[in-house]
Amino acid sequence: MIGAMCLGIPGRIVDLEDDRGLRMGRVEFGAIRREVCLEYVPDAQPGDWVLVHVGFALSRIDEAEASRIFELLEQMGELEEGA
Amino acid sequence: MRYLDEYRDADAVRAIAAAIHEATTRPWVIMEVCGGQTHSIVRYGLDTLLPDAIELVHGPGCPVCVTPLTMIDRAHAIAAREGVVFCSFGDMLRVPGSRGDLLSRKSEGADVRVVYSPLDAVRLAEAHPDREVVFFAIGFETTSPANAMAVKVAARRGLTNFSMLVSHVLVPPVIDAMLDAGDNRVQAFLGPGHVCTVMGTRQYEAIAARHGVPIVISGFEPLDLLDGVRRAVIQLEAGEARVDNAYARAVRPDGNPASRAVVDEVFEVCDRDWRGVGPIAASGLRLRAAYRDHDAAARFAVEDLRTAEPAECISGRVLRGLAKPSDCPAFGTRCTPEHPLGATMVSSEGACAAYFAYRADDLVTLGGGAR
Questions:
Q1: Cα dist from B268 to B54, B261, B264, B288, whole Å
Q2: If you count DSSP H runs as helices and E runs as strands, how many of each does chain A have, helices first?
Q3: What are phi and psi of A75, to 5 degrees?
Q4: Distance from CA of A17 to the nearest CA of B (A)
C-alpha cells in the first residue's frame, strides 16, 4: 500500500537534515523510519506530525482539528444517554 | 494520537453510521472521488453500514487507471531503449499497455525499477551518470509537488541524464466534465482530501456553486469517510450545496502555497486524455519549456504508437461511476489482478482491484460457484 498514489501517511518527525540545500529529515511511521523531504513544511520541527506522500511531507497535522470528531461523538453519546 | 487507529474504532464508526440513518429520508447518490477512499470503503465494508437509500459510487481518482494508453505505450518504448533506467511507482509496473506490462519489458531485458519517491530516481541519476534515468511522473495534484521538486533538484544539480515522462492530471476538470455529462447521477461528492492538502478547498467552491452539489472534503480512514457521508447527507436533505472540510486536521483552506509555487514554476496546465473517460481541456500538467531538457517525451522520440484497448473492459464506465466492477462480465474470470484487462484491476486505488480483494462473495457468485 505504501506506493499508492493518493495515500498520505501520518508520521512523526524524528530529526532534520540539510541535503545540499534540500530540507530533509527522518520521519517515524510506527516502527518504520524513512527519509522524507520537508521543503513544503518549512515550520515543522522534530516531534511534529506530518502527512507524507511519496516521500514528501505535504501538511502538518493539526491536533485540535484531529480531535473534533471525537468531541462530536462524545456529544452524540451524551444526547443518547439523555434521551 | 497516532492519527490512524483512532479513526478505525468500530464503536465510533457505528455511532456515525447511526447518525446517517437518522438524517436520511430520501435516496441519494454520493461519489467518493479518490481511489484510496474507494479502497477504504470496500475494505471496511462501510457501504454496508449505510441506509439502502444511500448509494456510494466510485470516482475517477486513480491516477494509474486514467493514464492514457498512448502514454503507457510510450513509456514501454522508452523503457526498452538501450542505456535507459526506467523508474516508476510500483502500481505502474502491472498496468497493461497495448502489448503486456512494464514487467514484460523487464523480462525482455529492460532496466525497470520501482521507486518510493521521485527523489529516489534523482539519486539513481546521480549514481549512474553513464545511464539515462527516466521517471514516469503520473498522479493528481497530490503528487505534483514531489515530482516538481525532483525536476528542480535534478536541474540544480546539473543532472543532464535525468528526465521525466509527465502525465499529470487535475481533479476539478474531471468533476466538471462528469457533472456536465447527460448521464450523470452523482448528487454530492466526498472530495479528495490529499489533493486538497496541496490545493486547498477554494477550487471546489466554484464547482459546488456552479453545479449545485455539496462537496465534503474527506479523509481516508473509516471514520473520516462516514463523517463525510454524514455531512453530505445533511446538506442534501437541507437542499444546500457548499464545500465542507471534514479533513481539517490535514487540509487548510488555502492548501500548501509553498508547494504550489514550485509546481507552478516547473509545470503548466495542458489538455489531457483520460483513459476510459476521454479528452478533457485544461485537465493536466506538463513540464514548462524552461525544463524541456528534462522532458523524456522530447528527449526520446517514439514513433508509430498503435494502441489497442481490450474491447471487453468497462473500466471507463467504472471510472465515471456509471458501472460497478461486478457489472463486468469479465470481472474475476477473464480479468483478475494476475491477468488484468484494464488498469482498474491493477492499481491499489482501482475500484475493480478493491472489489476483487475484499468482495470474495461476489466473486464466488460471478465465478460460477467455485469455492
A1: 39, 12, 6, 6
A2: 2, 5
A3: -60, -45
A4: 15
Q: Is B1 on the interface with A (CB under 8 A)?
A: yes
Q: Does B249 touch chain A (CB under 8 A)?
A: yes
Q: Does A16 touch chain B (CB under 8 A)?
A: no
pLDDT digits (tens, 9 = 90+) for A7-52: 899 999 999 999 999 999 999 998 999 999 999 999 999 999 999 9
Q: Does A19 touch chain B (CB under 8 A)?
A: no
Within-domain flag for A21: yes
State phi, psi for B293 to the nearest 5 degrees: -60, -25
Q: Residue A37 is part of which domain span? A: 9-82
Structural domains of chain A, count:
1
**Inter-chain CB proximity A55 and B2 less than 8 Å:** no
> What is the number of other CB atoms lying within 10 angstroms of the CB of residue A70?
15
Chain B segment 253-272 residues within 8 A of A by beta carbon are 256, 258-259, 262
Residue A53: give its domain's CATH number: 2.30.30.140
At B368 the pLDDT is 36
Amino acid type, B61: G
Q: Is some CB atom of chain B closer than 8 A to the CB atom of A40?
A: yes
Domain boundaries, chain B: 1-303
pLDDT, one tens digit per residue, over B302-319 is: 987 888 888 889 998 999
**Is A40 inside any structural domain?**
yes
Rounded Cα–Cα distance for residues B6 and B67 (Å): 34
A4 lies in a domain?
no
Which CATH topology does B1-303 take?
Rossmann fold (3.40.50)
Q: B229-257 burial, b for 16+ CB within 10 Å, e for fewer?
A: bbbbbbbbeeeebebbbbbbbbbbeebbe
Tell whether A1 is covered by a domain. Answer: no
| Residue B217 CB neighbours (<10 A) | 29
Please indicate whether, in this complex, the C-beta atoms of A73 and B142 are within 8 angstroms of each other: no
Minimum-distance CB partner of A40 among B35, B258, B347: B258
Q: Which of A3, A40, A61 is facing B89, going by the closest CB pair?
A: A3
Confidence of residue B364 (pLDDT cuts 50, 70, 90): very low
* Minimal Cβ distance to A51: which of B19, B156, B197: B197
d(CA B349, CA B100): 20
Taking phi over 0 as left and psi of -120 to 50 as alpha, with beta for the rest, B338 belongs to alpha
Q: What type of residue is B371?
A: R
pLDDT number for residue B2 = 82
| CA B369 – CA B310 distance, rounded (Å) | 26
Instruction: Enter the DSSP assignment of A42.
Output: T
